[in-house]
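Narrative summary of target 7.
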Amino acid sequence: MTIEIITNLIILAASLLGFIYGLFTILIRKRPLYLKMVVLAVACMMISRIYLLLQYLTGKNIPDGFHVGILCMLGCFLFLFSANFGMIDGLADDGSMKFLKYRLISWIVPVALIASFVPMYAFDNISIKLIAYSVVLFVIAISARFHFKHLILPDVDYGVVRQIRGYNAVAFFLCISTTVMLVADLRQMTHLYMVAGCAMALFCLILLPILKKEAMRWTKI
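Modeled conformation, tokenized:
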């Protein structure tokens, strides 16, 4: 088996276990929508790996452009972004000037992630795959911004942000490792691809257990 197949098998196994954990501990009973969205994010990562593995194992080339694997990766980070931006950020940041510096500092992360793709546009041929990965990177970048913001933001009365900082740290590093994997794939750096993929697998596996444990501090689960 190739490094790509092994790497995607590892990610699939980890995201499958993470999804099953989420399914049985969060979705079966009535749970907060925030947690359900994170479960769906892990499910999207799992489906993206299933698609890629089926392509590899049937001897087909992975198509360039927006195939199922790309769209599912987009879905994964859109769910993570929506959960933080739509349901938590308003509780943590009231838009006042006292939080302005944290809002500004948090933009460092998406700028740095997007900058990692700039050399490929400057020195490589622009391909459909590069464009598709760039769209994924943009969604990863905005998701990573809010995970990082909630790591550095001072907490407010309800203590919501402080209680789930472990989850935000794991989700943040999932964004970083996925970005590294995209870069490694474009650059055909197979060993870096595998290292980044194994990191992604670890973060997919522990994301929901950590979130459930931390969320128990501010909601009944």
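The chain has a mean pLDDT of 87.
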